[in-house]
Specification:
The protein is an alpha+beta fold. The chain has a domain of 89 residues: Aldehyde Oxidoreductase, domain 3 (Alpha-Beta Complex). Helix content is 19%, strand content 28%. It is built from two helices and seven strands, in the order ββαββββαβ. The longest helix has 14 residues.
């Protein structure tokens, strides 16, 4: 699972943002021939990224090359259930990355288009955002 080695601050504020904000970076396929692009925005956790990566790797039978363009560097804290108010901020529970609409999250190369589309279809089911398959221009 992906997680940062070291951070300047262990706990961050949540920074809930709403609305249809579009991505300005990572909007086109840069490394491979095919990409998986987010259509909606949302939080993608390290576990979801790993599940999607495993699904794609199994679908291509460990052939080709896969790039992960997003990294979960945002810690999310959580208190235990039935904990009284106060007593400080909870411990870090998991890491996530906020993904905006238009971000290319995964890329793939070295396989044919049908295999890549099937691998991305399996990965789509593991992610909390709506996605589509894009090709290099």
């Amino acid at each position: 699972m992906l997680l940062p080695k070291k951070m300047k601050y262990r706990k961050w504020q949540k920074r809930h943002t709403q609305g249809d904000r579009l991505a300005t970076q990572k909007t086109s396929v840069a490394f491979g021939s095919f990409g998986l692009k987010a259509i909606t925005e949302g939080w993608v956790t390290a576990r979801q990224i790993e599940a999607a990566r495993r699904a794609m790797t199994r679908a291509v039978k460990r052939g080709g090359k896969i790039w992960i363009r997003i990294f979960p560097d945002h810690p999310v804290t959580n208190h235990g259930s039935e904990t009284p108010m106060g007593k400080g901020k909870g411990a870090v529970d998991y890491y996530m990355t906020p993904v905006r609409a238009g971000t290319v999250m995964f890329e793939m190369d070295g396989i044919d288009e049908a295999t890549a589309a099937e691998a991305f279809r399996l990965a789509m089911h593991k992610l909390p955002v709506k996605t589509k398959v894009v090709t290099r221009m």
